[in-house]
Amino acid sequence: MSGHGDAQPMTSAKCGPLKGMASVPGDKSISHRSLIFGAMAVGQTRITGLLEGQDVLDTASAMRAFGATVTRHGEGAWSVNGVGVGGFQEPADVIDCGNSGTGVRLIMGCMATTAMTATFTGDASLRKRPMGRVTDPLSLFGTQAYGRKGGRLPMTVVGAANPVPVRYALPVASAQVKSAVLLAGLNAPGQTVVIEKEPTRDHSERMLLGFGAELTVEKTPEGNVITLTGRPELRPQTVAVPRDPSSAAFPVCAALIVEGSDIFVPGVSQNLTRNGLYLTLVEMGAEIEFQNPREEGGEPVADLRVRFSADMKGIEVPPERAPSMIDEYPILSVVAAFASGRTVMRGVKELRVKESDRIDAMARGLEANGVKIEEDEDTLIVHGMGAGGMPGGATCATHLDHRIAMSFLVAGMAAQKPVSVDDASPIVTSFPIFESLMNGLGAEIRRG
Ligand SMILES: O=C(O)C1=C[C@@H](OP(=O)(O)O)[C@@H](O)[C@H](O)C1
Ligand SMILES: C=C(OP(=O)(O)O)C(=O)O
Fold first, then answer.
1. Domains of the chain with bracketed CATH
2. Whole-model pTM over 0.95
3. ipTM greater than cut 0.95
4. Which of 201, 203, 352 to mutate to test ligand 1, by most ligand atoms within 8 A of the CB atom?
C-alpha cells in the first residue's frame, strides 16, 4: 500500500511518571519472515503474535499475489498455505511493498530464482531507497532487474530460469541483503554462500533451520560464513513471534527520561544481534533490570523493569555495535539529549538510507528543540542537556519515517515545552498501538 493517507500531526507534552506494563507487538523482522518462509514451505504454517503493522500486511498481500493462501484467524493469529520452494506463480499486478525495505528486498530475493517477472513499487520513502544492494548479488544467480536511475523502485525483476548458486561477501552490514541472497539460494541447485564481516540480525538463519533447510554458520576470521544447500523442501512450522525489541525501545527510553517513571516491559529480545541499544543504555547509567531470562519463539528474551534515570552520561557508542542497534539510533539520540555530556555515534552512515536520512532528520529536529548537534556523513554527536534539560517547543519533520515520529513524541514527554511532529501516520507500519500504549502508561500524546 503506497502512502499512509493524510498527514497526521501529533503533539506530545511533558507528562507525569509513566507507570504500568508495556506489552509491545510482535517483532517486525520475524513477522515478515514467518509469512515469506511459510509461503515457501509445503503445507500450512501457523503464526501467533504476528505484527499487524502495515509493513507486514503488505508482505502478506504480496505472498498472496505469488500464490500462497494467507488467512487471518484473529488478532495476530494467521496461517499461510505455502506453495513450496520454486512454486510461486507470476503475480498478475504490481507488488506494492508500501514503506517496507525489508518486505521488498526479501521478496525480490525469494522470486529471483524462479522463471517469472514481477514489478515492485512502494511509497515515496521506499521509492528513494537503494535496491542495487540486492539486485547486484541477485544478478550473480542470473536474475535481471530494471529499475529507475540509481537502482530505485519501481523496478521489474526477471527471475533466473536456470539459476546458479553464488558465493557473496556482503559489502554492507545488512540483514536484508543477506536474507535476499539466502532466499534466492533456496531455489538454486548446489550451495549458496554468504559471508558477513559484521554479524547482522540472524532471524533468517534461525528460521530457515526451523523450516528444515540445510544451513551452516561458521565463525571465521573473515566473519560469519553462511552456507545454504539449495532446493530443500521446507516444512511448515508453528511460529510464535516474540515481541519486537525495536518497538520496546520507545517505552523503555521514555521511562528512562520521564521523572518518576517505573515500567515493566515483558519479553524483550536479548538476541545478541538485536540488543545493542540495551547494552548502550546500561553503559550510560540507565536503571534497567533484566528479569526472568528465557526462550520465547526461539529467541532469548527477558522482562525489563525500567525506572527514571536522572544521572545518565553520554558515551562513545562502539561502531561495531551498530548492526545490533541500527534502528535504535533515533531514539538513542533522544535519550542522549537528556543525559549529561556528549554521546558519540560513529559508523552510522547506513542511517542515511533508511525510511529517511535518519541522521539528518534527528539532527534537524533535535536542533529545533534546542539541542546542540554535530554530524558528518558517518557520525552523529548529541550534546546532552541532562534530565529535563531539553527546551522543546518545535515541530519536527518525520519524512514518512515511523521511528523519527515516535522518537520526537518520546522527546516531548520530558522536554520543557511540547514537541510536535508534522506526520505521525507512518507509525502504523511498525507499532500501530504506539499512541494508546504510551498514553495508557501516562503519556500525553494528542492529535494535532
Ligand atoms: O532484515 C531485517 O528484518 C531488517 C534489517 C535492517 O535493515 P538493513 O539490513 O538494511 O540494515 C533493519 O534496519 C530493518 O528494520 C529490518
Ligand atoms: C529500517 C526499517 O525498516 P525497513 O528497512 O524494513 O523499511 C525500520 O523499521 O526501522
1. 10-26+242-447 (3.65.10.10), 28-240 (3.65.10.10)
2. yes
3. yes
4. 201
